[in-house]
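Page 47, continued from p. 46.
Same chain as before, 439 aa.
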Amino acid sequence: MNRLITTFKNIFAIDELRGRILNTLLFITAFRLGSAIVLPGVDPNKLNLNPQGLLGLLDTFLGGAFSKASIFALGIMPYISASIAIQLLTLALPYFQKMQKEGESGRKRLNQITRVLTIGVTAVQAITYIRTTIPQEALLIDRGLFTISSLFILTAGTIFCMWLGERITDKGIGNGISMIIMIGIVSRLPGAIYGEALSRGTGGSLLFVLELVGLFFVIMGAVVLTQAVRRIPIQYAKQVIGNKVVGGQRQYLPLKLNAAGVMPIIFAQALMFIPTYVAGLFAEKSDFAASVQNAFQSYTTWQYNLLFSLLIIIFTFFYTAISVNPVQIADDMKRSGGFIPGVKPGLQTSEYIGTVLDRITLPGAVMLAIVAILPAIANLLGMTSGFAQFFGGTSLLIMVGVVLDTLQQVESYLLMRRYEGLMKSGRVQGRANSETVAA
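Result:
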């Protein structure tokens, strides 16, 4: 306890770090206040939205703003969609690849294109949200007038959320976009714990404590999955520059066990409505189609979770293949005078890295699939659906990743000021510093 108090004193003794933490809290407060403001022309007492599937996941990311018809109902998600689209275009089109290699100027142009695309994505999603989600009985004004006004308000709300994320990154602590998503998820945790405690009653106190202990170990497992890396040794050749001999050092190339992050779960979740939709078209004429529709309507059935797991494994390999390029890594190593001991530079190095990556991606994909279906298992064990969502899936992985990144930045400030780090056992490793070779 004394060490914890000392660490907090050290954190707030650094003027810059203290200012960044206070700025982050201020921006987060603005986001949460905006999430509670309902769109003009909507009667919140007549809203009875209970989004399921992908929409339910979106509502979790936004801290309930989606189901409340808030001015931040779309939140930062259109910007995430636009960023993913630009990332895929960067991998597929030479024009975007060239722009990415132009350094800071190229990144600024890509960011500008992403912002413009975000406005277009937001407009399309806003119209869809207004038309399909807000019921007529909840409107206090004409539907046409409400559609036009809400289109501008939702677009402005998304732009404001995007601005808040950028301000958190520049003036606060942590990655702003990820921080906003995490806050939306965490905002539901106290209510979920309270609801679970009420459902257990006084006679189920021991069982509730065991559930909290289980949640703790699940979080520790998610930390292991996020942090685990396979380190490949890299030897740098000695070079004579002037009168000095540089190089000759051994560094490590860390390949993450889960290089794809949460994207496979998001992609798989987006496709899980297809079996229910297709089977529903033939449900009246076919008993088999009706049974398929019933099996995939609930996320707790074994059929749903089996297909969900297979899609996650497939998307993990796919996303890892497009995000980690062994050929480019081998070329960069060759240009910097590095080589893997016992492996020839060039083609053999890229093949070696690709082989190692394939071997660690399979167990990583299986572990990611297990984490994704843990909420369904928790729900089958009798936990409330709100509390069960925190036992795995995208929500847990995002929370763990953002917290680790934030702690890494805090520790870097402490170490620069010659304070002790956050942990005696070693440095806190976020997602960022485990994806690059240490300098």
